[in-house]
Design brief:
- By secondary structure, the chain is an alpha+beta fold.
- It is built from eleven helices and ten strands.
- The chain has two domains: 117 residues, no CATH class; 144 residues, Jelly Rolls (Sandwich), CATH 2.60.120.
- The strands form three sheets. A four-stranded antiparallel beta sheet has the order 3-10-5-8. It has a four-stranded antiparallel beta sheet with strand order 4-9-6-7, with helices on one face.
- The two termini are 49 Å apart.
Length: 285
């Protein structure tokens, strides 16, 4: 249901079963907090998560306790990359410290935050499902790819990091199956696309029923901007030649971006004019 998860990687190995025992201990302490509302449960959990969130830091007290319990129970060693657990611990630290802060600032909210974290740790302990890997796959990694993909385009490459992040956040990740028509000739242009992986081709239908392929775009190239800039209907269709991962930017977001950076409009218009001239020459041929 979740598809293939992608996790951070490192060269450091830890014991998967110790991690699950640790998750079980954490779940119990969080549930005790929800039941008793005592900060003596949630505050130590937050501090322990801070220690666990360090790649090169010392083992946390709860991790040491989990190791002792695993040895006492005779649980076999199962190697696991440490990086995904560090990422997950950073998420856990945010939740645990958030619950600890809410305990004093907004007491009615704290049990809900702690309870949510308890669900996450129970999934880790009982079902070996790492919520951190889910977040990394569907939130962190797409944002990172969006930023790096945007940086690779000359149009945006000169932007400062802060603006680059803002631009990347304006894009939405879309997965396009092979053979799918992404834009259709004659339609209104309300979005532009940037190819991250895969390949698309631009084409026009001929009167004889055939097609004329005008261009092929791959990683780092964008399309769909001409209709937005001119306000005219799409002058060609685009379809995915292979499965494509792309970034989509809505017309309203692009226009807001261009108002803040007028120089980007000039570069976009130059690119659009060059493409228009090339496509017209192909149609003449």
């Amino acid at each position: 249901m979740l598809g293939k998860l992608v996790c951070p990687i490192s060269n450091v190995r830890i014991d998967r079963n110790v991690v699950r025992v640790n998750g079980f201990i954490t779940t119990l302490l969080l549930l005790l907090y929800v039941y008793t509302r005592s900060p003596w449960f949630v505050v130590p959990i937050g501090l322990d998560y801070v220690l666990r969130a360090q790649m090169d830091g010392p083992a946390s007290p709860m991790a040491r306790l989990a190791q002792l319990m695993a040895r006492a129970l005779g649980v076999p060693y199962r190697a696991l990359d440490k990086a995904p657990k560090v990422f997950a611990s950073r998420i856990g630290a945010c939740f645990a410290m958030g619950a600890a802060t809410a305990h004093f600032a907004a007491p009615a909210v704290a049990p809900w935050v702690a309870g949510t974290l308890a669900v996450f740790t129970m999934l880790e302990s009982v079902f070996d499902l790492c919520v951190g890997c889910v977040v990394y796959t569907y939130v962190a990694l797409p944002l990172y790819r969006a930023r790096e993909a945007v940086r690779a385009i000359p149009l945006f490459g000169r932007l400062e990091d802060q603006m680059l992040v803002a631009v990347a956040n304006g894009f939405r990740t879309v997965r396009i199956p092979e053979g799918t028509r992404v834009v259709t000739e004659g339609e209104e242009g309300n979005e532009m696309f940037m190819v991250c992986t895969g390949r698309v081709e631009v084409y026009r239908d001929r009167l004889d029923g055939g097609e004329t392929v005008l261009a092929t775009y791959e990683r780092g190239q964008f399309f769909g901007e001409m209709a937005i800039l001119s306000g005219a209907p799409r002058n060609a269709s685009v379809r995915a030649v292979t499965p494509v991962l792309a970034l989509k930017l809505l017309k309203s977001e692009l226009e807001a971006m261009l108002r803040q950076h007028p120089g980007m409009r000039e570069l976009l218009e130059q690119t659009a004019a060059q493409r228009m001239a090339r496509e017209e020459s192909l149609m003449v041929e």
